[in-house]
Each structure stands twice: as structure tokens, then as C-alpha cells.
């Protein structure tokens, strides 16, 4: 897997996100209050809302359009909603946010 160096962790606010242009559209990188990072395509599986603008709590993000709850680890919508935002591997290494791109399924 090829890892891309995106930015310093401190460049993403806690409970915030950063958008990165990917080969198939924008990717949102989320930072939790515990300094974990997760990356999802920046499109809610419901109506394509910008997940990067949603509220982050725990390991979930709420879509700003219709409040769908999306699990940051898997991209899966939480019941009763059904759908999935494509997930990309992300990690913090030596204080840097690293991202590996995967094609959308």
C-alpha cells in the first residue's frame, strides 16, 4: 500500500476534518477527540451530502443534510439507515497524517 503524507495532525482541528482531492472525488479526513484519523469519500450514501461538514462525535459523523450517522471506521450508515461511504486507510505516523487511496467499490 502506498501511503501519502497529507499534513501534520495539528493541521486538522480535533473533531474537525480536512478535504483532500482524490482520483474519484473529494476525500474527507476526520480527526477524533482522541487524535485518531479516519478517511471517507466526502459523500453521504443517502443524498451525497458533504460529510466533511458534519458533526463528529466518538467515531461517528452526522451528515449535515439529514443527520444520517456514519461510522468513521467502516463508512457504514447506522441503523435504521442503510448505505456506506467508501473508506480509505488513514493513520498518524510521527505526528503526520498518512492516507492510502483505494478505488471505490
Short summary of the structure?
This protein has 105 residues and is mainly β. The protein contains no helices and 10 strands.
Report on the architecture of this protein.
With 105 residues, the chain is mostly beta strands. It has one domain (3-100): 3-layer Sandwich (Rieske Iron-sulfur Protein), CATH 2.102.10. The chain contains no helices and 10 strands. The strands form 3 sheets. It has a 4-stranded antiparallel sheet, with no helix packed on it. A hairpin with a 6-residue loop joins strand 6 and strand 7. The radius of gyration is 13 Å and the shape is globular. The mean pLDDT is 95.
Tell me, what is the CATH class?
Mainly Beta
Order of helices and strands: EEEEEEEEEE
Q: What's the number of structural domains?
A: 1
**C-alpha end-to-end distance:** 17 Å
Q: What's the rounded overall pLDDT mean?
A: 95
Q: What is the strand content?
A: 35-45%
Structural class: mainly beta
The total of helices stands at 0
Radius of gyration over all CA atoms, rounded: 13 Å
Percent of residues in helices: under 10%
CATH architecture: 3-layer Sandwich
Low-confidence residue ranges: none
CATH superfamily: Rieske [2Fe-2S] iron-sulphur domain
The strand count comes to 10
Largest sheet: 4 strands, antiparallel
Give the strand line-up of the largest sheet. Answer: 2-3-4-8
Outline: globular
CATH topology: Rieske Iron-sulfur Protein
Amino acid at each position: 500500500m502506498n501511503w501519502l503524507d497529507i499534513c501534520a495532525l495539528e493541521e486538522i482541528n480535533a473533531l474537525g476534518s480536512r478535504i483532500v482531492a482524490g482520483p474519484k472525488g473529494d476525500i474527507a479526513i476526520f480527526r477524533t477527540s482522541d487524535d485518531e484519523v479516519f478517511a471517507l469519500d466526502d459523500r453521504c450514501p443517502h443524498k451525497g451530502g458533504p460529510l466533511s461538514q458534519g458533526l463528529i462525535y466518538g467515531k461517528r459523523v452526522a451528515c449535515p443534510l439529514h443527520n444520517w450517522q456514519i461510522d468513521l471506521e467502516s463508512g457504514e450508515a447506522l441503523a435504521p439507515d442503510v448505505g456506506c461511504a467508501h473508506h480509505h486507510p488513514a493513520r498518524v505516523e510521527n505526528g503526520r497524517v498518512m492516507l492510502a487511496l483505494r478505488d471505490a467499490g
